[in-house]
Please model this.
Amino acid sequence: RGVAAPPPARTMIPTRVTHNPIIGPGVVPMGVDPAYDAQYAKHGAPTRHVASHGNGRPFVVEPATPNTNTQMPYVTGTTVLGMKYKGGVMIACDTLASYGSTKRYKSIDRVKVVNSTTIIGFTGELSDFDYTMTLLNELSTTDFCEDDGKELSPMEIHSYLTRVMYNRRNKFDPLWNSLVVAGVKNGRIFLGMVGMIGQHYEDSHIAAGFGNHVARPLFREKHSDDMSEEDARTLMESCLKACVMRDKSMMNKFQIAKVEEGKAPEISEPFSVATEWNLRSYHNPTEFAPGCW
Amino acid sequence: ANRAILPARSSRPMASYGVPPALGVAPEMMEEISTGTTIMACQYDGGVVLGADSRTSTGTYVANRASDKITQVTDNVWMCRSGSAADTQNVCAYVKNLVEEHNMQRRGDEDPGMADVKLVATITQQLAYRNKDKLSAGMIIGGWDRKLGAQVYGIPLGGSMQRVPFTVGGSGSAYIYGWCDNTWRENMSRADAEAWVARAISLAIARDASSGGVVRLVTIHDKGSSRTMLEPRHQSLCESELPVIPRG
Model:
């Protein structure tokens, strides 16, 4: 006499776990995803310490999975700046990917649209960002397939990325990026950053990369949450100018992406900022200082 | 220590040519922390043209965006400096002093202010060679004198000296060897030579992050020398770049 099978669940249709076990851990209840369960069938690890509802599985690192240790970035993007303004949020960055000291790829998009309410920009390793975009695209696709009109909000995407980055860091296999997430949903303007060790915060203005040193003081002095869009754009351009003057791996070709409530995210065409070089002392630096260099 | 000075790239176990270093490590561990430069010199019909970029970087930070890497040694001889800024400045100071002393003894009042280009180059070479384990300095000497006319001498790391029709140096030089070899012509006119040097340096700046800013040119001929500065908007535009807007 066996125990009767439990009645079929009549709650939500269980979604297949989409993320790769490498980035885990998902605490996936047993029986939801047979393929996922099969991977852990042979692990006899004690489970008493795991999740209060008792249905979770401990996360275990698969020894056979490919090792993608990123301990050194190769193709990198530099500064990303973000700031809130009245009614929206904008992110700015240049279009350069450097290979060490070489300015290798000069027309890449370092800021991308995630869904209709969120944009994301990156600094650090280009390949790791492409991988992150794959994960985000999977999430967006899942949302689309649900066909219920609901999308992930900027805050949820920020939170998801925090978990991803932190868990990768815990396995000594970080995604070598600082990600700037921005968006507007239901009147809530969001701007936040996630770093490669899982450090994350939300603020009215964000700078990742070299902009931390160069642009942040300018933001602190001039930024306010209720700036008009023109003022915000002017401030952003002056920060970009400061960054490109003083960061050697930056080029004078930028894109600004903005999100406002109810409108689709826009990414501008590449533009450059005006710079001053015709200073008297630049022509002959040691003119009045013989013996100097 | 009798450690031979090798180019920065090959002296460290992890970095080989073409593999970029890790970012986010201390500046001492980074390549090219102060060799970031493009310098060059070429001989034309009647003189020499020296060119250089104007960027001094420490790590990623651009410490000086308008530095002057072409230094006057005598009225008719100028020197392009690449490598450690401190090393080249001090070598140049020694060279100026030693050349002046030498000329006081040997030439007396003949052509004051002038010096044989080969003399300047040889003195520089001796300093570079005898201190090769301490210095990180790559220099190019260019000038005009009555005995041998227009001359360019390259004195790279290690302290060898070579008279050449043209030469390039610094981290940015790697990107333009092919272009220079392909487009070089003997006995160009002065205008052609200046345009050629300016174009070469612009091409290096386009790809080398450690080079940038303005392009400085110095032209030396039998009547004297003159210097110019080319702002970014007057430099030739390269692939994937946008036209430079002057601040108005």
Remarks:
- Chain B touches chain A through 47 residues (CB under 8 Å).
- The first helix of chain B runs from residue 85 to 106.
- The helical segments of chain B are 85-106, 117-130, 177-183, 190-207.
- The longest strand of chain B covers residues 137-145.
